[in-house]
Structure formats: C-alpha cells, structure tokens
Amino acid sequence: MSFRQLVRAFSTSCRKLSVTGDRVLLDSLLKNPELDPQDARNELRWMRQSLSPSLSLSSRDTELASMVKRRAAGNTDFGPLELLCRAPTLIPRPETAFIVEHLAERLLDAKRKRYIERPLRVLDLCTGSGCIPLLLSHLLQDTLHVAHGVDISPEAIELSEANKQLVSCDNVYFHQSDILSPDFVDHIRNDTGLEHFDLITSNPPYIPADVWAQLPQSVRDYEDSRALVGGSVPGVGDGVQFYGCIAKLADQLLEPASGEFPQIAVEIGETQAAEVSSLLPAAHRRSSRLTLVHKSPTPSCIVFPFPPLVGYTRALNALTLLKMPGPGPLAHQVLVYAGPGISPLSLSYTLLTLSLVLRPNYTVQQVAADVLKGEPWEPNTAMLVIPGGRDLPYVDELSTRSNVTRRIQDYVRNGGRYLGICAGAYFGSADCKFDIGGRHEVVGKRDLGFDYGSEQGAHAISLNVEGGKSLLELLYTNGGGHFIMPSPAPSNVEVVARYAEPPAESDVAAVLISEGKGKALLSSVHFEYPLEDPPARDAIQKLDVVPPPEFIEECEKARLQWVRQLLSSMELNVPARAGDGEVKDGEEDPHLLLNPTHPGPIFTFSHPKLPELATGIFSAPSIQKKVEPAKDGFEQFVDGNDTFVYGPTDAVGDVPAFLSKARRTEPKHEPKMEDLSIGDQPPLPKPMDFKDIPKLVLLPGKEQYTPEWTPLFNFETYWAELDQARKEAGRRTGVMRTDELSKGRTGERSSVGDVLFYGEAVTSTQTMLDRNPILLNGIKTPHAFLASFQLSGRGRGGNAWLTPVGCLPFTLMLSMPQSMVNKLIFVQYLAALAIAEALDPDGRLGVRIKWPNDVYAHVEGVGGTEVGGGKKGLAKIAGILVNTNYMNGQWRVLVGCGINVLNALPTTSISQMHDLLRERLTKFGQSSDLPPAPTMERVFARIMQSFEQKWEQFLNDGGFDSFMDEYKSRWLHQDQEVTLTTVTPHQKLRIVGITPDQGLLRCVPIEDTKLTPLYQRSVDGYADRTGNGTSGEFVDLQPDGNSFDLMSNMIKKKN
Fold this sequence. Notes:
Elements: H1 2-10, H2 20-29, H3 37-50, H4 57-72, E1 75-78, E2 81-84, H5 94-112, E3 120-125, H6 131-140, E4 144-151, H7 154-167, E5 172-176, H8 184-192, E6 199-202, H9 209-214, H10 217-222, H11 241-253, E7 264-266, H12 273-279, H13 282-285, E8 301-303, E9 315-317, E10 333-337, H14 344-358, E11 363-367, H15 369-374, E12 381-386, H16 391-400, H17 404-413, E13 417-421, H18 423-427, E14 431-434, E15 442-445, E16 458-465, E17 470-478, E18 493-499, E19 508-515, E20 518-523, H19 536-541, H20 549-569, H21 590-594, E21 602-606, H22 612-615, H23 621-624, E22 628-629, E23 635-638, E24 643-648, H24 655-664, E25 695-699, H25 715-728, E26 737-738, E27 748-749, E28 755-762, H26 765-770, H27 773-778, E29 783-790, E30 793-794, E31 800-801, E32 807-817, H28 826-839, E33 847-850, E34 854-859, E35 873-887, E36 890-900, H29 910-923, H30 936-957, H31 964-970, E37 977-980, E38 987-994, E39 1001-1005, E40 1016-1018, E41 1033-1037, E42 1042-1045, E43 1050-1053
Parallel strand pairs: 3-4, 3-6, 4-5, 6-7, 10-11, 10-12, 12-13, 13-20, 21-25, 24-25, 28-29, 37-43
Antiparallel strand pairs: 1-2, 8-9, 14-15, 16-17, 16-18, 18-19, 19-20, 21-28, 22-23, 23-24, 26-27, 29-32, 30-31, 32-36, 33-34, 34-35, 35-36, 37-38, 38-39, 39-41, 40-41, 42-43
Helix pairs in contact: 1-3, 2-3, 2-4, 5-6, 25-30, 28-30
Region (Disordered): 664-685
GO molecular function: biotin--[biotin carboxyl-carrier protein] ligase activity
Protein name: Biotin-acetyl-CoA-carboxylase ligase
C-alpha cells in the first residue's frame, strides 16, 4: 500500500485510461473500499506490468481480469501465492516476489551443489503481511525447516496469521516484537525456541525522513510511518537505521554455515547500497559465487533490473559464512550416529546403555548422516558417538561424500567428545587393518586420525582396567580389534583397558586420547551390550565353562560401573548412582528394564498436533457410565478381562521415579475366594495371574513428555519419523481425515498411528483390546497399542507368545462397515503387504509374504545358507493375527503383529537382513547405497504410514482387488508346487493366486486325479498362466483350516 500511495504522490505521468475494458476493470477495483480512483488506476497499471509478455493477448486479458477480481475482494498476488491485503499493512509488490523467487533459486542451487546439507531456519524481520517467509516456504519445500516472521505491528501479525491459514502453511510462525529493542534477541529466542538461524530476510523501512516529510498530508495520515521510514545512522546516512540493527542481530542470531550460500537477504533503496554495505562487518561483506544481475555501487549487492518505483530499486544483499563453533557451555545432547554402516543392534544398545548411565543430565538420541553433514549440531552436543558396524560405509558417507570428519575433528579440538565403539573406533583411527587376507579384508588410512589397528575375532573376553587393578569379565567383542601404540607412547594417549588374554600383536583394548580441548575414547570392545541378553549372553554360553547366573549378574554391575568411569574420564557430568546393588527411585535397573517381571503402566499418546485425542481417550459415554472413583484422584472401570485405573501423569509426580519404583515393586492383588483355605494348612502358593492386576493408564497431563518416560521407545523420534514418512508419501500429518464409515462421510477420524497406547511391559496388546468390550467399543478408531514386552502374548491358534528382546509387538484396532463382511479375510493380506512394503520398500532386503499371515526373509545368509552361495534361505521375521468383533453395526478389527526388528542372532531380524544387504553391497563397492538402519521408532512409523494408505484405499474400493498384483509381487508362492495332504491319495497342486471374492488360496491340480467335492471347484475354460490345461478344475483352500509347511511344500490340516 505504501508504494501505491507513493506512486500516487510522485508519479505525474500516469496515463488516463479510456478503453472500455479498462473502465470495467476500474469499476471492479473500486468495489474495494480501501481504493480511491487514483489508487485503482495505479493498481491496474502495476497489474499489467506484472503480466508475462509470453502470454497471448486473450490469456493476458483473462489473467488480468482474474487479478482484478482478487484485488477487488481485498487480495493480491505474490508470486504463485494469493494473499490478503488489509490497511495499514503494506501491500506486497511483484518486485519483492521476484527477489524472493531469485533468492529461492540461489538457495536451491546451493543445495544441489551440497553447500546446503540440511533444512534451513529463516528469520524474517519487519514481516508485514508475512509474504516473504510464506513464499519461501512454498518455493523451498523441504529445503526449509522453519521460518519465523517478526513485526512490531499487531495488525501486521494478525494479517500474517490470516495469510498463513489461507495458503495452508504449517512451518511458518509469526511474533509481535520490536527488533530495535535491546531485549529483542532474548525475546525471539524464547518465542521461537531457537538459539540461531541460517538465513535472515527483511524488507525493512528505508525511506529517509526528509522524503517522508515531503509527502502529501493525506499519505502521511493514511500510511503507517513505522513500516516506511528508516531512521538515520550518524556518519552513514538517513533511512538505514534498520540495516545497522540487522547487521548486529546477524552477529548474534546467525548460525555460521558449513557451505557457501546467502545468509542475509534484504531490500534496500536504489542509492543505499554503499551505505548499507558500510554497516556490515567485513566478514559479512565478502561476496562469493554471486553474479551481478545489474551493475551496482558495491559488489556485495545484487540489483534487479526492473523499472524503478519512486526512485527506489530493489537489491538483494547476499552475505557469506563464519566458522562453526565447538560445543557450548550448556551442551546437553549425546548424539549416536545412525547412518550407513551402523549395526542396528549396536545402535539400539548404545542408546539404551548411555541413556541408563547419563540421564537425566544428558539427552541421548540418534542422529542421521544428513544432520551431521548440515545441521549445526556442535553447539548443543556434549558427545558424538559412532557405534559398532562396519567402518567402510562410515568412511564413504562421512569422509568421501562429505566433510563430516573435518567437522568432527574441529568439534573435538574445540572441546567436544568423541566415542567410538568397535567399528566406530576403527573409523576414529589413523589406520585400519582388518581380516588381512580374509573375505572381509579392510586396509586403509582413516581421516579422523585417533591411532589403532585391528584383527578379527568374536567371543566373551576379560579386560584389565584401572591400570591392572581390576578385572572385567565376560564383555562381548566381535572382531578382536586392538590398538598399536607407537614407541614412545604419545603423552596425550591413555590406555584405559588391556586384554587379559591379548592377541599376539598388542594387548591394548581401549584408549582415551586428548585432542586439543576435547577427548576421544576408542574401544574395540562392545561394552554397550548387557551380559544377560543376546548377543553377549550367547557369547557367554559358548564358553567351555558357563558361569552361574549370580556371577553374570555381578559382571553386569561391573560393566555398567566401568561405563560410568569411562564417561567420567571424558569429563561428562555422570549422575551419581547408589552403590552396593541398590537402585534409587528415578534410577533405571537395566536387568528389570530388559527382563520385566510384571505388567507396568500404560501411556496414552497422540500426535503433537492432535493432543486432545489422547487426553479424551476415555471420554465416550459408553465408558464414562462405567467409571467410578479410585484412589489418589484416579478413576477406574471394570471391563470383561481387566480393570483399568486411569489419570493424568501429573498424579504420579516424578514420572521416571514412579516408573523405576513400579518396575521393582511386585504388584499386590487380593486372593480369589476359591484360593482361600478354612483349614489349618495355608494355601499353596500360585503364580500371579496378571489378569487380576489393575492396569494403570496414564493420560497426558501438564508435565511435558521426555524420552526418560519410555527408555525403550522414544516418542519424540517416532513422531519425527512418522511425519517424515508421510511427507515422503505426499500426505499431510497431524490432521484429521474423512471418516469413511461416518454418515454421508461427514465425520472425521485420525490417521493410523496418530493415537496409541504404549506399555513397556503388558500382558498382551491383542488380549487387552479383544477381551475388554467396554474398551473395544468405546475407543475411537484407528487406535494402536504398542509394547516393548508382552508377558502373555497371543499367537495364532491361541498359542502363547512371549516377546523376546528386539521384537516389536503391536495391535491395530480398526473399524469396517458391515457391508464388507465377506472382505474380512483380506485384512491379514493387507497387513502383510503393508508390513512388507514398510520394511523393504524396494525389495532389496528380501522381505516376502508367506500365505496367509506371515512375513519371511528370503535371502542368502538366512535359513542355513551363505552369502554368495547362490541359494536363498527362508526365515520368519513377522507373524500376523486378526480378530474381529461385531459392535453397533460395524466390525471392530484387531490386527496383531510381532516383528523381529533388532533381535540378536540366531533369530533372523530386520537388523540382520540389513547387515546382509550391507555385506552384499560392500562386496560390489556399493555400500553407500544402503537404506537407513532399522530402529524401533522408524520401523513402527513406516508401518503406520504404509497401513494408513492401504487401509484408506481398501475401504474406499470395498475390497482387495487393486492390491492383488502388488501382493503377488511380494509373496513367495507364485507357481509353487505343493502337496495337499488332507485328501487321500495326496494331491500335487500348483499355486496360481488368491480368489478375488473370498481370499482363498487358488491352486490347480498337476496330476489328473479326481478331487473330493470338498475341494473341487470349476470354472469354464480355466487354465493357468502357463497355458497348462486343467479340465476346468481348481482347488481353493481356506487359510483358517490349513497349515502351510513352507519348508517341505506341504499343505496340511491345521492342528
């Protein structure tokens, strides 16, 4: 609006419009009460100038009419966006949109050249209508992480928020604040939660005061001077005050970049380039990789060649980078690398062990390679950890393909800490020698350079620590690495562990290196693995003399104590722990955490953007009418199988302390009447019936969730993974969707994975939903129930199933219309397909579907086969169980599943399949092409996203037909020859597919044997796809009545 008024004041050459068409357009513009006749004329002229000259005359007329219509309604075009306009906020100009588009092109080009390796955080000062950050968000897409716009005007913030809603932007936020205030930096950091930004943009006030004073009174009364007039800087010039302020803010708020790209972009007046440049520190005035679009007074500015408006052209000022800092004094993160090369099992236990030892003083979380490449991780990171795996992919990803190793070196030298375990230690050395002459030989220099060498081996070992004063026993090692110390030994290297039975070359097992201001700890031994769980437990079992459990328990305590000593030696603030085997409230007992004895509390979670779904989980009238008061402010209701006691997390006080005590405290329950004795003899002790224990459900309260609440499953990571999976699929996240089952499709539902129960240890996710009708009928669907351990799990056919360490058990509760009753059988097929797709999207891992309800690994290296042997083995990695209940005119469907994600060998898991793929790719020099390593959070998030899309399509299609080709491409059985043993004589069949009507396994006889009428069906002219005639006969087998023995190709009657 300012430029409209300025042009009205200064322009004396505006042509009078006489064309009838223009008169019609002017009349339309004048319907906007903010526009007088002269305003409308200028608006129309600007609209004509902004039209592309490549358009035909008719297209130009159509586009112009559309622009007029929007402007008459109070809107304006800003690049591809349509924004609201409202006095007294300035109207966004096409020239500004051009600058933003040019800036976006440069940023995207910098990303392509890998100068930008992470999404950007943008701060827009004097944001006005919010046009700049909103257009950047639209143009940059995933190159932008978040943008924050700031303005002093409450009217501007209100308009910005309205524009944000209009363009449906969810990563731009607006704040009312005065950038000239001395407290602005503190305010913006508090409001945004960010210490630093990557890019500052601004179209600030820059009209000199003397120019403003010469404007007509009508202009000065109408426009907001705060949006137009820039103050003076003594000795520099008038109208440039805000640029000096921006320069000072840049020093405090800009995060120095790891590559070269513009970090400040501002509009300036035509004559102000030299003045603005003089206000910037020399480091900011350097111009790099910038092409001058139009000659300007200084090479640090880009001036755009469009017609000047009232003497002011637009300039883009591009500024370059500063050096990355080291860790700050309040660094509190411990980052564990989770990129190409890592062993998922080592990653999982490294996260767990460090969390148990370092919380609550530090947060322990995994970090992707992309973050290490581009994100400013150093200032908040107390320690970087590279766990076990294979170091060649580490070298390729972090040294060859990027400059991460240099950043790690700088980080450590500036006071950071580096922990390398096994392959992470190899990666941290100057030279590596592994399996010389063997199949896995690795010989080469390492860029990170903290010195060692290695040989191969795998077993439980003993270490001499504390200068030989103590002996650590039964620690797990795989690879037999050792460190070769130069002679004389460097003064900055301390040997912290030696092998009690050393290899021939060296006995050094772990070293602590002082590097500049920081420290690096390299350990060839896997101290992250608990001794009572695989793989350490399996290695112990291979010893000639297996030690008793009591000795193993003592060694486990010693392991954790040594980890604490190691981390303390790196000058981390390790929390004090109770001694002599005692565990205080709030401290974790690793043994009970991984070996629970009884069910524990259940948390209710919902997507952070939909918090009301979790807090109102029990709000249905059918549940509320059963609710009665319980102790300590809780409420409860008695259901068919369980009693549920629920309340907010605030009611238990310190949540981690409450959970720690709950793990150690055996639950109390009243004995049943039939167990009481009236005689002299006391009743015989009986094992606890978990069904009799009330189940505590904790709802969200005022206290904010932290990963300490759920040490085995990080929900912050899960929500991030879920959002990313949906983004990759082109779907919005954290929003309600159309409820396909609601009347007229007018209702809403959440997405699969947005609302869930989580229990560290539960009886059975399937049973607790299936056998509690009040809960089953009262909770809104879709709903997920996830656990880390099931103590009374249910398998197919009613078999008991106990969850091993590393398994992911969950149940999905869904709703289906009564009309799809004959499609219920397809739910297990849909679930298997969704799981296979989520685990192995491109098929390289070898995940396949076994009819009717299992998921298998079909790859070299499992089931007794060897990698490179030319034969693929088979091993089960997941099972599916589907139960249905008919309630209130709908089917409640429960899809239970258990997936081997991080199980240790000999159990086949996704982790092992990832390692096998890595081995195959490494063999052919393609290790950089690895998919991300599996974690519990990532796997569950990917399954939820995959199932949501397929479930939505399944309901909309009313069946499975559209999935049939995809299902066949993933299953194991196409044209497989099997023997049907449920008839006499046994019949040989060939599998050809699944029937589209009832989901039966369709086969054709191989031999011309008459089948019993129970199995025989016919269809006119049927032949299999090979063209072999079958006399019209085929055999359809039900999944519930038959058992498929995959290993022997037998179909037998289910027992």
